[in-house]
Write a structure and sequence with these properties.
Elements (H helix, E strand, L loop, with lengths): L7 E6 L1 H4 L7 H8 L5 E2 L14 E5 L19 H18 L4 E5 L6 H12 L6 H18 L2 E3 L1 H5 L5 H4 L9 H17 L45
Parallel strand pairs: 1-2, 1-3, 3-4, 4-5
């Protein structure tokens, strides 16, 4: 293997994870920032893999929080069952390896008016509310305290922006580039503050191919070169 052995990051969840590589999403942001530092794998997580992931980021909750349909068909999951399911996921992931770290993302808020405008023809009458997202978010955060898992409170973090309703979503549910920047910042904050050994924070990991080279771009002084391994264009995210 060329370069340092890179830690493996796994993103696991519903469409908030699926679309995290679209619209300059938070998955794409992390992939860019960690481009010379870590491995990412979106595949199935199993208990018998020869190499277990260093970090698993888990998101479920938004679909679970939808109102139940009279037919009992649909994605709604009762709150106690949702909590129990998330607990099983947490326990399983923590059992993979002593070095496997876990971060849960709580349910983010939604823009109900935007959902009505953009998705009514597809989804019909509104079946989810921001209030219910908040309830499931809080339940997730409480569970994380109980089982000792790091968590990101997305429901609160996105609503810290005064204009969150206008800029954080593509359709009222899924995150825009501005919403994803908030998610990425919150994840990086957890990675920086976590007292994990080894640290998985961006600035704590070695870079591949980090040796200085005379072929690197010249710095403004025209005398020295800039090591491209140390250049990140997303300064506002870091």
């Amino acid at each position: 293997m060329v370069g340092p052995q890179r830690p493996q990051f796994v993103l696991f969840g519903s469409s908030i994870v699926q679309f995290s590589f679209s619209y300059q999403g938070w998955g794409a942001i992390l992939a860019h920032l960690y481009g010379r530092k870590d491995g990412r794998d979106g595949g199935e997580i199993t208990g018998d893999a020869t190499v277990q992931p260093s970090l698993v980021i888990v998101y479920f909750g938004g679909n679970d929080s939808m109102h139940p349909h009279p037919s009992n068909v649909g994605p709604h999951v009762p709150l106690p069952e949702y909590v129990e399911n998330m607990k099983k996921i947490a326990v399983h992931l923590k059992s993979l390896s002593e070095k496997t770290r876990v971060i849960f993302l709580s349910a983010p808020p939604i823009n109900e008016e935007q959902i009505r405008a953009s998705l009514r023809e597809i989804l019909g009458d509104l079946s989810r509310t921001n209030e219910r997202c908040g309830i499931y978010s809080e339940a997730c955060l409480e569970l994380c305290k109980e089982v000792g898992v790091k968590a990101v409170d997305l429901w609160t973090a996105l609503q810290q922006r005064d204009d969150w309703l206008d800029v954080c979503f593509t359709d009222g549910i899924h995150l825009s580039s501005e919403g994803s920047k908030i998610v990425a910042k919150e994840i990086l904050k957890v990675l920086e503050e976590a007292e994990w050994e080894p640290s998985l924070h961006l600035k704590s990991l070695p870079s591949e191919f980090s040796d200085d080279s005379p072929n690197d771009p010249l710095s403004p002084d025209g005398k020295t070169t800039l090591n491209v391994a140390d250049i990140h264009l997303d300064r506002e995210i870091e």
